[in-house]
Amino acid sequence: MPHYLTFALVAPLAAFGSIAVGERRGGWDRPGRSAVLGLIGACLGLEREDEAGQAALAEGYGLAMLCVAPGALLADYHTAQVPSAQRGRRFATRAEELAAPGLNTILSRRDYRSGAWHLAALWPRVPAPRWGLEAIAEAMRRPVFTPYLGRKSCPLGLPLAPELVAATDAPAALLARHASEAKEGRFRKTWLGPATGPLTVAMEAEPGGLPAGLRHLRTERRRDQPRSRRRWQFDLREELILAVPQP
Predict the structure, then answer these.
(1) CA nearest to 131, candidates 228, 206, 41
(2) What pTM value is reported for the model?
């Protein structure tokens, strides 16, 4: 039976950024694959400039998420000063922008999630991954860099609490952990809303078809597969959204 590393992604305030266009910084209702892999890389002490390490993390592991509570949408508005656009003028730094004459004030919006509650499962996709699951679990217990959920202003509300389990598939590992936590009341915090309605699992299609007992709701395309962390480039991928019953 395969092994999976399950861990919690819980925060009073989180940012699940989607494609940023113009002054609007929108967000998804759950963490992207790149965001979770970035959090794992922070725990491991992986530098953004380490292309080989980033590629090993992006290509060597599968990821599934049990979305218990997406959290309430919270919009935060910012004002910023920018110079007027001029053809052929480029600024190397933010300091150069602010030193330019004729600054204008613009309004931007960033979306956050209040009371987000997700569980994730990680497993190796290659015969000899660079990091074993136990090594990743130990890094989560003693992270090199501070992990946060989306932006640096969004610290975790609870520990990642990594657990290595054996299960028939990733959704089974996630549901077993969620059932255990629901029984123990581990995540009953005042800033966490109740888990209402059907739970959903988000994951890429795996060989062998859909896991037993789950219903396929839809397939989403998301640009959150890291191609180059240094150049901040991401590829499209397809993600299955599966409905599962409450434990």
Answers:
(1) 41
(2) 0.85
